[in-house]
Automatic annotation (TrEMBL):
The family this protein is said to belong to: Belongs to the SLC41A transporter family.
SUPFAM superfamilies the record matches: CBS-domain pair, MgtE membrane domain-like, MgtE N-terminal domain-like
Annotated localization: Cell membrane; Membrane
Organism: Dehalobacterium formicoaceticum
Its job: Acts as a magnesium transporter.
Gene (name only): mgtE
Classification lineage: Bacteria, Bacillati, Bacillota, Clostridia, Eubacteriales
TM stretches of this protein: 285-305, 317-338, 358-380, 386-412, 424-447
Keywords, comma-separated and alphabetical: CBS domain, Cell membrane, Magnesium, Membrane, Metal-binding, Transmembrane, Transmembrane helix, Transport
Main location: membrane
Protein name per the record: Magnesium transporter MgtE
Length: 451
């Protein structure tokens, strides 16, 4: 049974005050399935469903919702139920929700929490949401380096129920500085009397609390961690970032890069219609104006070819071919470069090697496509020289496009600018202009032999 079908049954049970029956039907579904359906309901209809669930399960459902919607749902529910749900949620998830609320709403939710939990959430709210501190959780397991394995297991039994994960156990010194890590498996099989500092791994990969979330995600992906510790400038352990949060970051950053590559930005479909329209116009217009300006410049170059085109009309036949092929190659190269930088597959520090590789690729595809165009133009117009002019222009244009499509994102990255801003409209417009300049130059040089 789909949840959509079950929802009507649940509503009927609620209307008849048959709450136990409604809970039985609801219990057949996972929190993620419930969240997927209720996120399309009005806020006032979500509360009655969550009231049927245990606080722990309700917290899992709310955690699956958009942070803004989750905040609205909690604000709509009674204080007692809201407090019970919040108590079952991890601090980083609560902080994400509160980040979308007004200050009075935040204070109301925080007042329902225990003092220690509220302090943890307030501390998380101090960090920027796109940094390691903004996505970390403070519920983790840490042990001192000078205790035995037997004592460490006792500590874990006491603290693990409140921790988000216990795959890794982090080791600290008396100053709360991160000094090592040990897996739960290694701890269990260790001699009970062995000191932790004698069996722990001393080389620990960690991230600074102010590191950008995209860099954190790349690091976790590189080393296949299930969690990574977060430290401050003094190496004090602040929290951990778990792989589920990293997956969210990867999804968020990938979506952002895709939108930027298209020369636009993400629009929140939950906003009012007029706001969505205004945001879409505001985000797209600058890049469209760049394209428009490029079109005028390209038109000016073609106008400069007026004499040559009037003399050899066939020159105009190949202009769409040159601009189209160059733009495609440039867009392909910039997309691969931006994606490679985002995943760490391309090192911005090795610019010459990366750009050189792109140039060689451009030479390869340029020579093949240039040769094909030369032959086709000769067969079509019965002029070998015209075919050579078009073929050489296309070849040089594709080499330039491949090189620039890779070079621009690398330069932006080197100067600390998000390379995704090197979007398709910018790259393709630039390549159109350079391609036409190359074509115009060759045509002008060989015009007297083309007549």
């Amino acid at each position: 049974m789909h949840f959509e079908e079950a929802y009507q049954i649940i509503r009927d049970h609620i209307a008849a005050q048959e709450l136990d029956e409604a809970r039985k039907v609801l219990g057949e579904f996972q929190p993620a399935d419930i969240a997927e359906f209720v996120e399309n309901l009005p806020v006032h209809e979500i509360g009655p469903i969550l009231n049927l669930l245990s606080p722990e399960t309700a917290g899992e459902v709310i955690n699956q919702l958009d942070a803004e919607l989750a905040g609205d749902v909690l604000s709509d529910m009674g204080e007692e139920k809201t407090g019970a749900i919040i108590d079952e949620m991890y601090s980083d998830d609560v902080a994400d929700i509160l980040g979308e609320m007004t200050d009075p709403e935040k204070d109301k939710i925080l007042s329902l929490m225990g003092q220690e939990d509220a302090i943890e959430v307030r501390e998380l709210l101090e960090f920027k949401e796109d940094t390691a501190g903004g996505i970390m959780t403070t519920e983790y397991v840490a042990i001192l380096q000078n205790i035995t394995a037997e004592r460490a297991i006792q500590v874990i039994r006491e603290t693990a129920p409140d921790a988000e994960t216990v795959y890794y156990v982090y080791v600290i010194n008396d100053k709360n500085q991160l000094v090592g890590v040990i897996s739960l498996r290694e701890l269990i099989i260790a001699n009970p009397k062995t000191l932790i500092e004698d069996i722990m791994h001393h080389k620990v990969k960690s991230v600074n609390v102010h590191m950008d979330q995209e860099e954190v995600a790349a690091m976790v992906a590189k080393y296949d961690f299930l969690a990574i510790p977060v430290v401050d400038d003094d190496q004090s352990l602040m929290g951990i970032i778990t792989v589920d949060d990293v997956i969210d970051v990867i999804h968020e950053e990938a979506s952002e890069d895709i939108y930027r590559l298209a020369g636009t930005a993400e629009v929140d479909f939950e906003d009012a219609l007029w706001k969505r329209i205004w945001m879409a116009v505001r985000n797209r217009l600058p890049w469209l104006l760049v394209t428009l300006l490029g079109g005028f410049l390209a038109g000016g170059i073609i106008r400069g070819l007026e004499k040559e085109i009037q003399t050899v009309v066939a020159l105009s036949y190949f202009i769409p071919l040159l601009t189209g092929m160059g733009g495609n190659v440039g867009t392909q190269s910039s997309t691969l470069a931006v994606r490679g930088l985002a995943t760490g597959q391309i090192d911005a520090g090795k610019m010459l090697k990366t750009v050189g590789t792109a140039a060689l690729i451009g030479i390869g595809v340029g020579l093949i496509c240039g040769l094909i165009v030369t032959v086709m133009a000769f067969l079509w117009q019965k002029s070998l020289l015209l075919g050579l002019v078009v073929g050489i222009s296309l070849c040089v244009n594709m080499i330039t496009a491949s090189t620039m499509g890779t070079f621009v994102p690398l330069v932006l990255k080197r100067f600390g600018v998000d390379p995704a801003v090197a979007s398709a409209p910018f790259i393709s417009t630039t390549i159109d202009i350079t391609g036409l300049l190359i074509y115009a130059g060759l045509s002008s040089v060989f015009i007297k032999w083309l007549v």
